[in-house]
Amino acid sequence: MINDKFMSSTVARVVIAGLRGGSGKTTLSLGLVKVFKDTGLKLSVFKKGPDYIDAGWLASAADTNCYNLDPYLFTDKKILQSFLSHSHGADYALIEGNRGIYDGMDVEGTYSTAELAKLLKSPVILIVDCTKVTRTLAAIVQGVIAFDPEVDLKGIILNNISGRRHESVIRGAIEKYTPVKVLGAIQKLKDERFPERHMGLTPHHEHPEVLKSIEVMGRIVRDAVEYEKVLDIARGAPELQLTDKSCGLRVASYELNDKNITRSSQPATRNPQPATRSSQPATVFYSLNSQPATRSLKIGIIKDMAFQFYYPDNFEALRSAGAELIEISAITEESLPDIDALYIGGGFPETNAITLSENKKFMASLRQAVEQGLPVYAECGGLMYLGREIEFQEKSYPMTAILPISFRMETSPVAHGYTMVEVKEDNPYFQKGTSLKGHEFHYSRVMDYDSNLKMVFAMNRGKGIDGKSDGIVYRNVLATYTHLHALGSPEWVEGMIRAAHNHAQSRRRLSSV
Predict the structure, then answer these.
(1) Res 301 pLDDT > 80
(2) Disulfide: which of 99, 124, 240, 269 matches 103 by Cβ 3.0-4.6 Å?
C-alpha cells in the first residue's frame, strides 16, 4: 500500500547508557521496566544493537516484544519508523544502549549509543560502575558531558556501591563538579540474579527463576533509584517527527492465537494502532517490493530451548508479506508439519545437544523434506544443527547431517561483530551482486567440511565459515553464520516468500499429476 506518511510522537523516552559493557545497563533497565509496569504504565522497550539475549530479558520484564534499533544494520529512517510505530500508544519507551556510550565502529563513534540517542532526541541516563573509585568518577562524568554537548545527559545512577561513605563521596563529587544529578545508588548485589555464560547473560528461556529475578531487580530499583525523576526526565523528551514521502509503508494488522495467525491488510493511517503485545492486535511497517502470495504461505519456525534468537521484526515482516508462521520444536516433535518453507534461527544447540541428537525421528523428517525440495534458511545455531556433529565439552553429538560440515565449541569467541557479505553465486534466496549487512557471534569453530560445499557469500567484513566465505547452499537450503534483520535486509523477506511460493507451486503441480 503506497501512501505518503507523516509520523510524530511525544512518547516519554529515555536511553540507558554506560561507560562500558557489563556496567549494569541491563539490570537497571529491567528494574525500571518492572517498576513502571507495576505502576500501570504501558511500555515499549528497545535494545540498541543486534543483541538477542538482553532483548529477551527486556521483553520478559515488559511483557511485550523488545525491538532492536541498530544504526549499522538499517538506516536512520528505518530506525525512526520502527521506534515511532512500535512506541505508538505507549506511555513510556525505554531504550537500552550497548557497550560504552560513545563506543562505535571507528574513532568517530559511528553507530554508537550516543548517536542513537541524538537521532531519537532522547535524554540519557548514565549508569557508572563505582568499584574501587570515588572522586575520579566526577572527572569521568564531566568528560562524558564535554565530549559531545549534543548528547542530552540528564542523570547518573551509581552501581556497585560498597557503603554509605562510598556513595556520599561519589555523589558529592559528581554534584559539585558536574551539572548533572545522581538519581540513585545501587549497592553491590550479594547474590547473582543474572548469571552469565559464554555468550553473555543466560537467556531468559533457560533461567530457572526469570520472574523472581525481575521482581528482585524491580525492588532494588524501587528502593535505590529516584525512578519518578527518571520518568519526569523521560517525559521531557521533545517531539520526534518523521516526514516520509519517498517510500511506501505497508501496514499489516495481525492477531496471534497460539500458532495460528489471522492477517488482514489495510491502508496506512495517520494514527497507527499500538504495536505489539503478543495477545493484542499489532501494527507494523515495512517496505517490500514483493507482492503478497495468492494464498497464505506456511513458514515453519523452529523455536524451542535450543533455537531462540529471532528478531520480532523478521516475524512481522514475513506476516505482512502474507505468511502464516508455525512454531515447531526440534526437541519434542517427531516430524515436520505441512509447511512451504522453514526458518531456523540461532541459539544454543550445544547446550541442548543431547535432546536434539536423541530426537532422531524429527531429524529424519527434516532430511527427507530437504531432499524433497523444502526451502530452509538457517542462521548460526541453525547452521550447526544442519551439520554432521557438534563437539562440546569433549563429547560429540550427532546432528541432522544434511550438510557435510562439523563444529567444535571453543571457550572464547571465534567471531563477534558486524558482517558485510556479497552474494557471489546463484541460490534460492538472493540475487547475485546483492550486498547484505549482518551480525555474527559464535563460539563454534568449523572442524572440517567437504571441499565441494557451495558457499555463496563472500565476506567483505567478518569471518563467516572460513574467513572468506559464508552461506552454504544445498538444494533449497541456505545456512550461514550471518544473522540478518528484516529492516536492513528486505531482500531476505522477499527471498523467503519467493522460495516458499515456488515450493508450494511445485508441490501443487506434483499433486495434480
Answers:
(1) yes
(2) 99
pLDDT in tens, 160-172: 999 999 999 999 9
Going by C-alpha positions, the residue among 75, 52, 50 that lies closest to residue 487 is: 75
Domain range enclosing 182: 9-241
With pLDDT > 90 as the criterion, what percentage of the chain qualifies?
80
Domain assignment present for 503: yes
- Which residue, chain included where needed, has cell 520472574? 211
Cell of 128: 557508572
Q: How many CB atoms lie within 10 A of CB 231?
A: 19
CATH number at residue 222: 3.40.50.300
Q: What is the pLDDT of residues 58-117, one digit of tens each?
A: 999 999 999 999 999 999 999 999 999 999 999 999 999 999 999 999 999 999 999 999
Rg for the chain (alpha carbons), in Å?
23
Q: Is residue 513 predicted with pLDDT exceeding 80?
A: no
Are the C-beta atoms of 161 and 155 separated by less than 8 Å?
no
pTM: 0.87
What's the grid cell of residue 411?
571457550
Strand intervals (E) in 49-123: 66-69, 92-100
Report yes or no on 261 lying in a domain: no
90, 101, 395 from 112: Cα distances, Å: 25, 7, 40
Interatomic CA distance for residues 64 and 42, integer angstroms: 10
CA distance 453 to 462: 20
In a domain, 263, yes or no: no
Reported in sequence order, the residue ranges of 3-75 that DSSP labels E, i.e. its strands, are: 5-9, 12-18, 43-48, 66-69
Q: Count the domains in the chain.
A: 2
To the query of whether residue 380 is one of the catalytic residues in this protein, the response is yes
Q: Is 260 exposed, middle or buried (0-12, 13-18, 19+ CB in 10 A)?
A: exposed
Domain presence at residue 252: no
The beta strands (E) that lie in 10-42 are given as 12-18
